[in-house]
Amino acid sequence: MKILIQDRFNDTERKFLEEGLIGHHLKFVQKISQKDVDEAQIILGNPSSDLDIKKEHIKMIQLRSAGSDTFVNRIHPNTLLCNASGCYGVPLSEHVLALLLALSKNIPVYIHHMDQHLWKNLHQGKEVFHSRVCIVGCGDLGTQTAKRLCSFDCHITGIKRRNTKQLKYFDEIKTIDELDDIIGDMDTVILCLPHTKETKGLFNKERLLKMKKDAILINVGRGSAIIHDDLIEVLPYHLGGVGLDVTDPEPLPLEDPLWSNPKVLITPHSAGGFTWKSTRDKYIRLCLENVRRLTENRLCLNLVDLDSGYRIDVK
Questions:
Q1: Which end of the chain lies in a sparser environment, N or C, as judged by fewer CB atoms within 10 Å?
Q2: Which residues make beta-bridge pairs with 37?
Q3: pLDDT tens profile 121-130
Q4: Is 269 a catalytic residue?
Q5: pLDDT (0 to 100) of residue 66
């Protein structure tokens, strides 16, 4: 097989890929060109939007990202599309904790006080310990976040699309239809959602106002899950803090009022990415496994259902 690899790896990782893909013709490139696409049978990486990837000869695209919504309409019907869900849970869940603790303990305010050399105790804040947390989206990211929150003895409610058996690290599981029934009891709501038709605009003004007045809202999934203008409207009188690693639009325009809102902590979609060794290690192993499965005519892992946008569970 002719395998095109978008090169984001160090020498050791590149050697591991080469040894795991012996017998295939490998091409490592920093930036994928149309000529590269036209010659490849398998692409490991994310071809940019200006490239035509609707090619019948491409057997599989193994994305480097967990999100796949911008690719589902770009590929040929015969091409398998696989995402990198499951590769980002560790760094993303750490980022969730960073946002939650920073907002709970007034860290953004104290950083501004440092700029002024101001020693001023706010005498306020929130405890994560024994708080009630709702995690909307119970995939790898949601599960890894729940695992880490267990150390704070939180009561953790997971929200899924469908009824399911009890999941490890969660105290209870509810369906998306039950979200409004429980959201008013939650001290923190964490969004770990992909971009789909069902998740777009899920948190509108009405749902935001159903949250506790001092609740913390964190979004590390996709910015489209929160209606941007509705969030701006309710912030002056509702919610205790908002942590956003993703926004809609993205990047956030310079003049957007969220930048200067003292309740909001923004990071530039930096929670995931290939910065983290745990992510690269898992992605490399996923690539090797899926190339193996493809050559053996077996169902690939993380195969994306092009209709729903979610990955297909494979045992």
A1: C
A2: none
A3: 999 999 999 9
A4: yes
A5: 87
